[in-house]
Design a protein that fits this description.
The longest helix has 21 residues. Helix content is 50%, strand content 7%. By secondary structure, it is of the alpha+beta class. The protein is built from twelve helices and ten strands. Helix 6 packs antiparallel against helix 7, helix 10 runs antiparallel to helix 11 and helix 11 runs antiparallel to helix 12. The chain has a single domain, classed as Glycosyltransferase (Alpha/alpha barrel). The strands form three sheets. Strands 6-7-8-9-10 form a five-stranded antiparallel beta sheet. A three-stranded antiparallel beta sheet has the order 3-4-5. This is Prenyltransferase. InterPro entries: 6-hairpin_glycosidase_sf, 6hp_glycosidase-like_sf.
């Protein structure tokens, strides 16, 4: 398998070292924690598995998805936080649960392993069904549930944009599995509608760069709207030569957010801008292939003092998208996925 590389920025050897750094975090259970000895959450676990798949580390990636199968609860969800084999936060995050569909589709696209899909399809079906039980009539999906079962009513833009991509992957997997899920297609379209036309339904997290680019990364917005969105706050978040701020009013750049912006820019066909940002964040790289989470630039300080597997994985995914290396390199461009969109403009009442 050919390994992603970006000329002059990220070599195949560097990619293998980065994937090795992710694999070194893996526990015997298959879980991929943030770093050795750290905690595992379902979203970042899947992101790390995707990085492994893209770099050709297929066996540890498959073991990561086996963890998803074994750890899934009877209602189709996972806990929000694990330390080792212990649940330390039993809350449910809807985005965390839905993301397994994105991961399974990504691994299938790379491997063509139908037995893998057959084994993981019930996991995806259970997870998506659990998430959609909470979808509001207008299409948006609340944050989740607390450990005591109380609904977390806050609606997060980043999470919903990510779930839009996951729903599209889930519909594609259903077609592959030979199952009809028109209700999932409608759910994705309703969610896209809410993202495109009803920003007032989402909590104001505009300080955070994720809320700036994630509607694009998750496959929402038309090209003109997406470009205007990026232009409107480019100077708020982009720090030339370093990457992007995680939070607009803090002097702190982060690697994963920068590489997610790379993916969003690539989806818009802005390859030069994407390459510039990918190169800018490489100051977070260590010789062993790992990546620091972030950097406080006035103090020239790495913070937090951790090298996270999900940051490394997002670097690999960005390199794959830029280089068009694996069959899954077009995932965040929506290649091979249903659109998940209602055509036309919004003429609905605000209660929809």
């Amino acid at each position: 398998m050919t390994v992603p590389a970006v000329d002059g920025v990220f070599s195949t050897e560097q990619c293998v070292r980065t994937a090795s750094a992710i694999a070194r975090t893996q526990q015997g259970s298959g879980a991929l924690p943030w770093f050795p000895g750290g905690h595992t959450d379902p979203w970042d676990h899947v992101q790390s598995a995707m990085g492994l798949s893209a770099a050709g580390f297929l066996e540890p990636a498959a073991r990561a998805y086996e963890w998803c199968l074994r750890a899934q609860r009877p209602d189709g969800t996972w806990a929000e936080k694990y330390v080792g084999d212990d649940v330390t936060d039993a809350s449910i995050d809807t985005n965390f649960c839905a993301y397994v569909a994105t991961g399974v589709w990504h691994h299938w696209t790379i491997t063509g392993d139908r037995a893998f899909v057959d084994r993981l399809w019930p996991v995806v079906r259970g997870a998506i069904s659990a998430v959609l039980r909470l979808q509001a009539p207008g299409g948006e999906i609340p944050w989740g549930r607390d450990a005591d079962g109380a609904l977390r009513t806050e609606v997060l833009l980043t999470g919903n944009a990510s779930m839009h991509l996951s729903l599209r992957c889930a519909v594609a997997l259903a077609e592959l599995a030979g199952e009809l899920v028109p209700e999932w297609e409608l759910a994705a379209a309703r969610l896209r509608h809410a993202l495109d036309f009803h920003p007032e339904r989402f909590a104001d997290k505009s300080r955070y760069s994720m809320d700036w680019y994630y509607p694009i990364l998750g496959g929402s917005l038309g090209a003109a709207e997406a470009s205007a969105r990026l232009a409107a706050r480019w100077d708020d978040f982009v720090v030339p030569g370093l990457g992007i701020r995680c939070v607009a009013d803090q002097p702190w750049v982060t690697g994963a957010e920068t590489c997610e912006l790379v993916l969003a820019l690539d989806a818009l066909g802005r390859k030069d801008d994407a390459l510039e940002q990918f190169a800018a964040m490489q100051h977070l790289r260590e010789a062993d292939g790992s990546y620091w989470t972030g950097y406080v630039y006035p103090d020239a300080t790495r913070w937090p003092v951790e090298q996270t597997a999900w940051t490394a994985a997002t670097v690999i995914l960005a390199a794959d998208a830029l280089s068009r290396t694996t069959p899954a390199s077009g995932l965040f461009r929506g290649e091979g996925l249903p659109p998940g969109v209602l055509e036309g403009t919004c003429s609905c009442p605000a209660s929809l």
